[in-house]
Give the backbone structure.
Amino acid sequence: MPELPEVETTVRAISSFKNKKLEKVIIHNRNLRWKIEKDLEDLSANKKILNISRRAKYILMQLSDHCLMIHLGMSGKLRIQKRKDNFFKKHDHVEFIFKNEKIIFNDVRRFGSIHITKDVNKHPLIENLGIEPLSKNFNKNYLYKLCNHSDLDIKKLIMDQKKIVGVGNIYASESLFISSISPLRKAKKIKLEDCDKLVKAIKKILRYAIKMGGTTLRDFYSADGSEGYFKLKLNVYGLENEACKRCGQKIKKIVVGQRSTFYCSSCQS
DNA sequence: CTGAGATCCTGTCTGC
DNA sequence: TGCAGACAGGATCTCA
């Protein structure tokens, strides 16, 4: 599921929990990507949610003196449910219980993770994260500097969370298509004008995907149960052998850094 | 420091 | 139908 737009969509879907009291956390399975800290239940019980936000692909729930960090991994999702509705789905691992409702963390593949920490900005998984692509500081000069001397393929570079956060496999393919850059181009061969196009493409596609409520490819749905409709607008992702919308040539599927990558070899170079 | 590759886990789809 | 193998939107860790 989740790249930046899907996480942002989830954050917005649970934003109504701001200022509500988290009564308790019930953990059914601690074995996520990392084992959930054993004091998480104690530290988060009966704490007011002061703020709900996003950093990179992390959902942050700020409590009075700690911060809950939730990463959805590849298959994680949050689901809002009435507290009295006592049903479970397969792979429901954690429940965040409020007065009338609860938020349930469900994750088939358990690549997601949940942490609690005092100073979220100093958490090892947070402190080395790269720039937010929707921030003003992410501009052509910034990207050009990142590309400078890098031996990485450009697609791997824009997916590197230590450089730029939030761009995953789908939006990497899509933004490279929009900016007519081959995913195989070496980052150090990217010109300033390409950076300009790519930055604009990344911002445009992330904003648009957020507006559409994320991408529903397999089974992404937001915490309120609504689906994302961005899938209707994909240009290359998952469209192997279909005609390029720009030039009509067949879209190719290749592997870059062990990830499926879709592009048009005719109009992306 | 950089970059390549293996790896965690479960479910679904494809091809024989 | 059964079953093996490939593949899935992430990101860390190990090693060269």
Chain A has two domains: 4-122, 140-263.
